[in-house]
Amino acid sequence: MKKLFLFILILSSYNIMRAQWTAVNNGLGSLQIKGLAVDSNNVFAITANQGIFRSTNSGNSWTVHPLNSALPNFNINNSFYNWFSPLGGGTIIYGQGFISLVTPNSLFPIPVIGIPNNQLTWWIVGFGSQIESVMGTLGGLYKAPNISSTSWTEIPGLNNAEARIINGLSVYDQGDDEYLLVGTADGMYRSQANSTSGLIPFNTGLGSNVIRALLGQIALTKNGIYLLPDDNGITTGWQTLYPSGDFRTLIFTIDDKAYFFGNNIGLLFSDDPNTPPTQVDLTGISGGAITACAIEYLGLSGGYIYVGTETGGVFRKQFVLSSVEDGQIVNDFKLKQNHPNPFNPSTTISFSIPTSEFVTLKVYDVLGREVATLVNENLSAGSYSYNFDASNLTSGVYLYKLQAGKYIEVKKMILSK
To answer: Do residues 226 and 210 touch, judged by C-beta distance below 8 A?
Structure first.
């Protein structure tokens, strides 16, 4: 999916502190973590068998989500942030016979009826000319006109039990053609939109037939990380981002980086495609493979990276935002705090630069998605002010980043509607 891959490219520099990871499990009812998410000042831990827990103090303590009992059951198979869900952007959990959007003060469980294997794992909508819903399960792949349908049709081509375990779905465009990509426990498959021939294997270039997760054009496998390139990926096949390691999850940052975690492995990819990734020190983490990760930004002070494990719960490590690249200290550049703050629906962002520079001023949500570009041009030395109108955005914490030459600074602001 081009949208997600482009997001990687637009996601300026922070340093991970050397202290080891610390377990933060006080109040968690289960240590089997299926997902982690950050929304405003809330950190969510989605567990395999006790539902959803919430922390409002950066993981120091957890309480059961106030509407946890609204879930039909606590048999949760998967959880990922979904940018393009018709339910709205947010964390979606996949359980036994239901899916649900998770927000700080609400849950939206939707029953899914009519699928023989109701252990749901993944959902996309909008594939093909009929704009169909496609649902992955632990026992096959199914389609229906919409999520409320009671009659789902199995998509053929997954001919063994492992291949019927769906670990990821994505839609990819090549020219005028649209393809459904299906990551399974026994290989990658694809199907062209509106085709009646079903799924066919699509493993060219992959180093493993065990697909742990499929996020847009990125495949995490039992043996490496792979990318389906833009435009002609169906023709050329998968490209290797990293040739080994059992990877399960990833997170993008506003700092042009991406973290990949898995079974006894963690990698940090920089913003330079020619620079090899660096190993992330996992000292202090226990409980099997890392299954989930999230980042909480706390303004200029930095924030926390969280990881969840199979049986050891949640672990946390601090990072510190760096205002200047390459260790340079720049005293004459200045990014001011927006005013007013909190704001609704608009606010003013001001900055000053001492020399002529190419300047960008961008706004991101707490998940690292760019939501606005206010400046993207050469500016002369001087002071500048720009209005940011958030009428079309939801309440929450947003980050704005100034980059002027090698100078980078990030600040936090709060939209309160």
So the answer is: no
Parallel, antiparallel, or unpaired for β 303-309 and 290-297? antiparallel
Report how far residue 34's alpha carbon sits from residue 48's, in angstroms, rounded to the nearest whole number.
Answer: 6
Q: Cα separation of 270 and 258, whole Å?
A: 7
Judged by DSSP in three states, 9 sits in helix
DSSP 65: -
Tokens standing for residue 29: 């009812």
Q: Mapped to the 3 state alphabet, what secondary structure does 234-274 carry?
A: HHHCCEEEECCCCEEEEEECCCCCEEEEECCCEEEECCCCC
Is residue 8 helix, strand or coil? Answer: helix
User: What's the Cα-to-Cα distance from 18 to each of 21, 22, 360, rounded to whole Å?
Assistant: 9, 12, 31
pTM summary value: 0.75
Q: How is the beta sheet containing 52-55 ordered, strand by strand?
A: 33-39, 42-47, 52-55, 63-64
Residue 62's Cβ-count burial label (10 Å; 0-12, 13-18, 19+) is buried
pLDDT tens digit string along 386-416? 889 898 888 888 889 999 888 888 888 888 7
pLDDT digits (tens, 9 = 90+) for 351-390: 888 888 899 999 998 777 889 999 998 888 778 888 898 9
Whole-angstrom distance, CA of residue 199 vs CA of residue 204: 15
Task: Give CA–CA dist 406/403, Å, rounded.
Answer: 7
Rounded distance between C-alpha atoms, residue 361 and residue 377, angstroms: 10
CA atoms within 13 A on the CB side of 286: 5
Nearest CA among 43, 45, 82, 102 for reference residue 308:
45
**Tokens encoding 273:** 């495609």
